[in-house]
Fold this protein.
Amino acid sequence: MKVKECMCKEVACVSPNTTICDVAKLMLNKHVGCIPICDDNKNVVGLITDRDLILRSLACEKDIKQTPISEVMTTKVYNVSPDAEVSEASKIMCECQIKRVPVIENNELVGIITLGDLANNQEVSSKEVSDTVEGICKCNQNTKNAE
């Protein structure tokens, strides 16, 4: 199965100068835990998660109404092509311990694929979803280390 058959195509994104507060409100309104940060050409320049907001802004006492999201966003963003196999997205999630991967075509954001997308797609096996969760958590390392 291809990523484009499983991904979410309607992705809200913001510019790097959007305030932390406005990004948090967008997450609330869209019911999402991750927002890509894009330049004017829809090139992904960063990513912010709800966890990032807590750890990099709230915990650091940033002025959320004045601070641009560019000051707290993750800049190393992994991505996948819409024509890639879902297993490739799953592999990226496992190797990078992330739950969301932007989908990029011709250097432009065209979607996002999440762990939830994998879990909610009937064509993705429960074993693949389980293996992805395990990989993200690195649960299998604890078992190997205990042996």
